[in-house]
Amino acid sequence: MCFLNQISPNSVVCMSLKDANTFIIGISGGSGSGKTSFIRDIKAHFSPEEICFLSQDDYYRPREQQREDENGIKNFDLPESINMDEYFLDLIKLTNGIAVEREEYTFNNNLKELKTIQLKPAPVIVVEGLFVFNEPRLFEMTDLRIIIHATDTQKIIRRIKRDRVERNYPLEDVLYRYENHVLPAFEAYIHPFLNKVDLIINNNKSYEKGKDMLIAYLKEKIKLMKENV
Questions:
Q1: What is the CA radius of gyration of the chain?
Q2: What pLDDT does residue 108 have?
């Protein structure tokens, strides 16, 4: 099965929804659960030729397109906050052997240097973000589904540390967003999938055991995929 996609004004490409030789892993979890750190540690054990990491964080719509709540505060914790069509299309490109370039989203932090992200096709692709499983197209394409989980107390502590340091948000803003945007988003778009994923990695204190298990599994999986090429 394939669909036509216009890559450039003068070219149309027929791409399959998924290459049989590509293994797709979905990783989600509430804000502050430790997804970013977990994925960073996994990434350190593999080359870009082995695993490609596709993050929804780089597909947020511009600030002016984000919906405002009843108090006029932009809500970035809604599925519509992400340009899901572009995210899905880039995943399809990668599974069809087409490299992807995209500007990193800086979350309006003027202190952070803007970078261009270059993604190469690989036998294993990790799709990660808050709404990976809530998007039916992505849920159906994933071969292994993982949620990183933690208590609300741990998540809010990590959220405060991250948003104040990395994203330059004031504390009052962080707390308001957590109560009015983050928690409702978790309950609506992540919690329903706790009983539908293949693996839940608890990260109240540490995700080390879950990380080591996944690394060992991926190394063996990649080895077998290479042997079967």
A1: 18
A2: 56
In contact, 69 and 75? CB cutoff 8 Å: yes
Count CA atoms closer than 13 A to 144's CA, side-chain side.
Answer: 14
| Closest alpha carbon to 167 in 154, 179, 177 | 177
- The two tokens of residue 140 are 């159906």
Question: What tens digit of pLDDT does each residue of 44-77 get?
Answer: 999 999 999 999 999 999 889 999 999 999 999 9
Dist. CA 74–CA 206, nearest whole Å: 32
Residue type, 15: M
Q: Please give the Cα distance from 135 to 138 (Å, whole number).
A: 6
Contacts of 14 (CB under 8 A, 6+ apart): 2, 3, 4, 5
Kindly state the greatest CA–CA separation across the chain: 57
- Residue 61, SS3 per DSSP: coil
Write the CA distances from 156 to 5, 31, 32, 55, 189, integer angstroms: 41, 8, 6, 21, 18
* Residue 80, CA distances (Å) to 41, 136, 206, 226 in order: 29, 14, 31, 38
How deeply is 142 buried, as exposed, middle or buried, from its count of CB atoms within 10 A (0-12, 13-18, 19+)? buried
Structure pTM?
Answer: 0.85
Instruction: Domains for the chain: give ranges and CATH numbers.
Output: 22-227 (3.40.50.300)
